[in-house]
Write a structure and sequence with these properties.
The protein is an alpha+beta fold. The chain is built from four helices and nine strands; from the N terminus they run βααβββαββαβββ.
Length: about 180
């Protein structure tokens, strides 16, 4: 099962204010949560709330692309290109399904590789990324990123996964894309 969560802002002008309020609320909730054990639906929903207007601009991408929460049920004990390919049913013989780039990470989202569209408030972006990484550090292990699609010029927009494994072996994190021409 693949779950993509996305909530769209209803109006443009109060979006930044509403997002700022959401981030502060979520940060307060994360700080107050002493057990750090929250259900899958709750923390995935929080990633969805935090990713509103959050865009990715790393790994040589020629443009910013939206970040979407990603979840795929599985029973993996480790996350490698091979286990990811098998779990998602990818065909490595297809250029679009080849894992072109795989790297382990220490944090799910690096500040220099993200931006908030419609906001120039660095404090808001910092709070957002810190909260995302706090959730990821409590809920995920084996963090990595993967870029799909053979980089031979035949594919311009490559799927990107910033992911890790849950305690149960499910794949979770973000899905986005990088643009390489």
């Amino acid at each position: 099962m693949v779950l993509l969560i996305r909530s769209a802002p209803t109006t443009f002008i109060p979006t930044t204010y509403r997002l700022f309020a959401q981030i502060h609320y979520i940060c307060a909730m994360e700080t107050a949560n002493e057990t750090f054990l929250i259900g899958k639906d709750v923390w995935l929903k929080r990633l969805g709330e935090l990713s509103v207007n959050l865009y990715y601009n790393g790994h040589g991408s020629e443009g910013e692309t939206a970040l979407y929460p990603f979840y795929h049920e599985g029973a993996l004990d480790r996350l490698t290109p091979e286990t990811f390919t098998e779990a998602l049913g990818l065909n490595p013989e297809l250029a679009s399904d080849v894992i072109e780039l795989f790297r382990p990470m220490t944090v799910l989202l690096q500040p220099e590789r993200a931006c908030l569209i419609g906001s120039i408030d660095e404090t808001m972006l910092t709070h957002c990324i810190e909260t995302i990484n706090a959730i990821a550090n409590r809920q995920l292990h084996s963090l990595c990123y993967m870029v799909l699609g053979l980089d031979d010029g035949s594919i311009v927009e490559h799927p990107l996964y910033l992911i890790g494994l849950t305690r149960e072996g499910h794949i979770a994190g973000f899905r986005s894309s990088v643009i390489w021409t």
